[in-house]
Amino acid sequence: MKYKTLENPEYDEAYELITEALRKKATIVMYTNCKVLYEGRALSELDWGERIILIKPDGSFLIHQDKKVEPVNWQPPKSKTRAFIKNQQLFLESHRRTPKELLTVELDNIQFINYALIEDYEELEQAGYEKDMGDMIMENPHIIEEGFKPTYREYSVEHGFIDILGKDHENNLMILELKSRKAGVSAVKQLKRYISDFDESDNEELHQCKSEKKKIRGLLVAPTIDEDAKELIEEEGIEFVSVNPPKELKRDKKITLDAFN
Amino acid sequence: MKYKTLENPEYDEAYELITEALRKKATIVMYTNCKVLYEGRALSELDWGERIILIKPDGSFLIHQDKKVEPVNWQPPKSKTRAFIKNQQLFLESHRRTPKELLTVELDNIQFINYALIEDYEELEQAGYEKDMGDMIMENPHIIEEGFKPTYREYSVEHGFIDILGKDHENNLMILELKSRKAGVSAVKQLKRYISDFDESDNEELHQCKSEKKKIRGLLVAPTIDEDAKELIEEEGIEFVSVNPPKELKRDKKITLDAFN
DNA sequence: CAGTGAATTTCGGTC
DNA sequence: GACCGAAGTTCACTG
Lengths: 261, 261
What we know:
Chains A, B: InterPro entries: Endonuclease_NucS, NucS_C, NucS_N, NucS_N_sf, tRNA_endonuc-like_dom_sf. Chains A, B: It is found in: Cytoplasm. Chains A, B: This is Endonuclease NucS. Chains A, B: Belongs to the NucS endonuclease family. The structure is a homodimer. Chain A has 2 domains: about 5-115, Distorted Sandwich (Protein Yojf, Chain: A), CATH 2.70.180; about 130-260, Trna Endonuclease, Chain: A, domain 1. In chain A, about 25% of the residues lie in helices and about 40% in strands. Chain A is built from 6 helices and 14 strands. The first copy, chain A, has helices at about 10-25, 130-140, 185-200, 205-210, 225-235, 250-260; strands spanning about 5, 25-40, 45-55, 60-65, 75, 80-85, 90-95, 100-115, 125, 150-155, 160-165, 175-180, 215-220, 240. In chain A, strands 1, 2, 3, 4, 5, 6, 7 and 8 form an 8-stranded antiparallel β-sheet that branches. In chain A, strands 10-11-12-13-14 form a 5-stranded mixed β-sheet, with helices on both faces. In chain A, strand 4 and strand 5 form a beta hairpin. The first copy, chain A, is elongated and about 80 Å long. Chains A and B meet through strand 1, strand 2, strand 3, strand 5 and strand 8 of A and strand 1, strand 2, strand 3, strand 5 and strand 8 of B. Chain B binds a DNA duplex (15 and 15 nucleotides) through strand 5.
């Protein structure tokens, strides 16, 4: 049988069903009154109330209240779940090894339990992120400006990585910091840091640049920047280039490319 | 009636139930085959597969696959959900105003739908965070060292806030940066920045400190630090004090305090 | 394993 | 509504 449901089960019936579901690595959905205790990286307690509990075959354990996107309590994948009965009360326990974390749920008045062997073989196709932006710029450097030649991706410096390093048409060095969302002051500061890191570093690119008496240009590349970032950019002599992250799914891209082959 | 369930409903039955549930501001749980399209800050597409859908009375909309703690697609609270039928297919649509985001779900082969008017009046009680650590240190400064006198909490400087500002028994200035988890290099850098911000600022504390020829001590306060942070701290002349965040629920604390009154 | 950084981060605070 | 920072962040990726 692919799935099973119990409505208003007794605690012993519920115990049997949950244990069976866990053994079968099924996905369990419950709607029940419960009380929750969490002890691990932090500590929390949630008194009696009706919640939705989701237990996944990968060990993920979620407890949702009727508000918020985030679960009120949870355990990550690979956690071990078990059900047990104590003093004629049903408990669920989810245990994580490192870091040691324990989630204990006391159940009462279960409205329903459903378990199912989920069939889902799809993965999310997505686009519109910093990485997509970087790919796009490496493929079409002119988006930044005419004559821009990217030379390195993820160029390592003291405090992190320069997203894209390159040169303009006059061979001035260009340091690009990409943001796929609106950039704030923190992005400008990050870029500033990379520039000074680079300027203080001992590397071929820099030596060549200095021997040719070229400039180092810092560019913040993002869809937009907020007002404070705008001011800071002008003070710091940094340039801003507005680029939107490509919102094109890989599959679409592939089809498009295939069409050209 | 407090809750309703349908197993293997036809699309029109499902439509009726969902519309009724949305009108009643109920919490909806579904287990169904579906296909998902998201367009907003990013873009994503998820092909047909069985998933669990959760729609909350606050407008939150979650789609869970059988893996991970995070939903594969979602909309935040205050989103508006509606159901509609097109070409004898049932769709769910969740719409957010700012930023404009749209989640569209095509449903097929619904295994079950449940809606319920959830009764939950409890909020999570929790402890073990940075704020708790700060509270604890303000109340018991000797945790840091004998003679430590905290003077300011969240003291504003150029690039942020100094968690705790104070003086040692010799009236040297102490700048504390708190972390409730293992501190890394980034925390040391943050502290360094606050120290230099403070040193470059124009304020009473600093003038007094300099006129008395006192030192400025930087302290990183966290349960532990990683190896890289350890090295950096020694280089930079910053001190590390190991403090664990208090794992004590407010209610417990209140009871403890009451017991002493 | 630990460490780094992005995320449709979410969420709560303040301005 | 924008901005800022914490979070049991989670997650993917690297060494």
